[in-house]
Amino acid sequence: MVNADRALESHETACLLNVGEKPARVQITLFFADRDPVGPYEIEVDARRTLHMRFNDLAEPEAVPRDTSYASVIESDVPIIVQHTRLDSRAAEISLLSTMAFPAE
Amino acid sequence: MVNADRALESHETACLLNVGEKPARVQITLFFADRDPVGPYEIEVDARRTLHMRFNDLAEPEAVPRDTSYASVIESDVPIIVQHTRLDSRAAEISLLSTMAFPAE
Amino acid sequence: MVNADRALESHETACLLNVGEKPARVQITLFFADRDPVGPYEIEVDARRTLHMRFNDLAEPEAVPRDTSYASVIESDVPIIVQHTRLDSRAAEISLLSTMAFPAE
Amino acid sequence: MVNADRALESHETACLLNVGEKPARVQITLFFADRDPVGPYEIEVDARRTLHMRFNDLAEPEAVPRDTSYASVIESDVPIIVQHTRLDSRAAEISLLSTMAFPAE
Q: Pfam families this protein is in (chains A, B, C, D) (predicted)?
């Protein structure tokens, strides 16, 4: 399963929800306009838990570049739900994810 | 059928729409970052009616915690449509639901 | 085909897009919290055209009530795309549609 | 595959993401309320890259009209992901795409 979305601005966050009974191993890859993708960043979402991830906190394999547009692809070994959010003290914008199931086969 | 979405901030509401001819029995479960899920909260949406639900009004089995991020999974025994909204006097943000139909079989 | 969305506030608009070669006959039904649905309101979207519809302009079979929450179901005899928008001079909110294809059979 | 969305206001942008190994040849067609569609505008998104496209930069076959509502249909020869965004210095609105896969066959 692949959840894919894009982050156009800094201070991006993603809320990951794992409603299942098994932990989700999640891999995040960042795509850019003029360089090769970076990743995967690896995080885990416990069973029946949410995780509020800040992109700027991603450190390995390298810090997320600031002031650079990027897109992110979020892959999980179990189905999860991802909501991409940009926090703003005045007005928050919420981007929805186009979730595409890629048959594992 | 499962409609799943996440509420990251207080003052969240959900607008539920039941366009069918039968009342919808709806169960809401809240998921958290560091504790077990809470629920189900049970509400009913009459046939051919909308219901504007405020998460902070949910009381049983326990009040929705304030200042705590949570995600919600909304399940209904008949198909409904759910729109998740955060009301703000200056600018409202609307989050879309990833609606996943789980075959009842 | 049914496109369904909800309008929670006044000054709602919907942008309808018909990319096909045939005009789309569109029927809009409004749902409320405590009264029977109203409609259908009928509009037509020409082939290969967009139509910017203001809900408050709907007049037949009755004016859209102000200061009343409502949900709308938009049905078309040919596939169309609907974007629901609330115009605000400071910050616009955009709600996405959950589009459900009901087999015509 | 067809990604379709609508642009109701000026200063619209679209972020295109190609996670595949082959360049994506993308064609954009604009639809209007009272005139024939214009296009296709042609752009290419390199393999494993993002492209941040400003609608107002589209020049061929003709400049995108200002102060005119339009809808866009974005077609690609390989699957891509499109996020439609309106940039605003105070609050950005994000519209989601209704992505419809039209079997090529």
A: ASRT
CA distance C2 to C76: 7
- Rounded Cα–Cα distance for residues D4 and C80 (Å): 10
In chain A, the number of structural domains is 1
Give yes or no for a contact between C58 and C38, defined as CB atoms under 8 angstroms apart: no
| β-bridge pairing C38-45 and A98-100 | unpaired
Residue C54: CA count within 13 A, CB half-sphere: 7
Which residues span the domain enclosing B52? 4-101
The complex scores an ipTM of 0.71
Give per-residue pLDDT as tens, B11-48: 578 888 898 999 999 999 999 999 999 999 999 999 99
Chain D: list its partners (3+ Cβ pairs within 8 Å). A, C
For A73, residues 6+ apart whose C-beta sits below 8 A from its C-beta are A2, A3, A4, A28, A29, A31, D17, D19
- What pLDDT tens digit does each residue of chain A (105 aa) get? 233 333 333 457 888 889 899 999 999 999 999 999 999 999 999 999 999 888 889 999 999 887 788 888 888 898 888 876 654 333 333 333 333 333 332
Q: Do C31 and B49 touch (CB under 8 A)?
A: yes
CATH of the domain at C25: 2.60.290.11
Question: 0.90 cut: is pTM over it?
Answer: no
